[in-house]
TrEMBL record:
CDD domains: ATP-synt_Fo_b. The lineage of its organism: Eukaryota, Viridiplantae, Streptophyta, Embryophyta, Tracheophyta. It comes from Umbilicus rupestris. This is ATP synthase subunit b, chloroplastic. PANTHER family: ATP SYNTHASE SUBUNIT B, CHLOROPLASTIC. One of its GO terms (cellular component) is proton-transporting ATP synthase complex.
């Protein structure tokens, strides 16, 4: 552990870094860098994310409206079937002696098919809502990740020149080498 501390202290005392005015203490600069990157991401990504969420909200609301319209259609069908059921029941009274069992079977089948249709429509509505929510969440995640990556790359590219970039890479390689020696 002492070797890692020595290598970090050693990295903080480079003569070329001191002459440029950069703080090479990794532990002190990482929170600052992260706060700057997060601030930039929040500032520039807020409007896009808000628009994306509003669009997804409208699509989900439209899907819900469509599902509710389908449900209303199923309710109308149910009322029609109930009216038809009442008619069948009146005919059953007339033909009770001859076809009572057949009429009861038809009544049972009509009710079952209606309930199955309603269940299927309700399941379709719930699946559609769930699917749209998952799709919206996945799109938002993907967009945020892409924006974060683009912002971070843009920040890195604008802040690092070639010489500082190469020195930073060399310093990190040396640091990882020292860490590896300690763990071995």
């Amino acid at each position: 552990m002492k070797n890692v501390t020595d290598s970090v202290v050693y990295l903080g005392h480079w003569s070329f870094a001191g002459s440029l005015g950069f703080n090479t203490d990794i532990l002190a600069t990482n929170p600052i860098n992260l706060s700057v990157v997060l601030g930039v991401l929040i500032f520039f990504g807020k409007g896009v994310l808000s628009d994306l969420l509003d669009n997804r909200k409208q699509k989900i609301l439209n899907s819900i409206r469509n599902s509710e319209e389908l449900c209303e259609g199923a309710i109308e069908q149910l009322e029609n079937i109930r009216a038809r059921l009442r008619k069948v029941e009146m005919e059953a009274d007339q033909f009770r002696v001859t076809g009572y069992s057949e009429i009861e079977q038809e009544k049972f089948n009509l009710i079952n098919s209606t309930y199955k249709t309603l269940e299927q429509l309700e399941n379709y509505k719930n699946e559609t809502i769930h699917f749209e929510q998952q799709r919206a969440i996945n799109q938002v995640r993907e967009l945020v990740f892409q924006q974060a990556l683009q912002g971070a790359l843009g920040t890195l590219n604008s802040c690092l020149n070639k010489e500082i970039h190469l020195r930073t890479i060399s310093a990190n390689i040396g640091l990882f080498g020292a860490m590896k020696e300690i763990t071995d």
